[in-house]
Amino acid sequence: MFARRLINPAAVRAAQRSMSTKASSINGKGPFNVLYNTIMRNNVTYVSAVIAGTLVFEVVYGNVTSSIWESLNYGRLYHHIDWSQFKSDDDEEEEE
């Protein structure tokens, strides 16, 4: 007839415990439970958090990339040049 599968009941319980993803499971609350309850539960809060995170990321990313660009191109950019060195007497006469 049909072969009977021998299953260890303790192994079945352990597998069920490890596969459970509910917050009220035997494993306890999941690691993202606080994140879900504070930010993702309400749509308005979630969208606001995404927009705020995007703005913060944009400011930080812009400052970091600008500082890297400035350090790699120091002395080559327009605002690094000391224009007082290039001033001549002819320039003073033209200003008057």
UniProtKB/TrEMBL annotation:
Mode of membrane association: Single-pass membrane protein
GO annotation, cellular component aspect: mitochondrial inner membrane; respiratory chain complex III
Keyword Membrane among UniProt keywords: yes
GO biological process annotation, one example: mitochondrial electron transport, ubiquinol to cytochrome c
One Pfam assignment: UCR_UQCRX_QCR9
Record key words, sorted: Electron transport, Membrane, Mitochondrion, Mitochondrion inner membrane, Respiratory chain, Transmembrane, Transmembrane helix, Transport
Subcellular localization: Mitochondrion inner membrane
Main localization category: mitochondrion
Family to which the UniProt record says this protein belongs: Belongs to the UQCR10/QCR9 family.
Protein name in UniProt: Cytochrome b-c1 complex subunit 9
Organism of this sequence: Aphanomyces astaci
Lineage: Eukaryota, Sar, Stramenopiles, Oomycota, Saprolegniomycetes
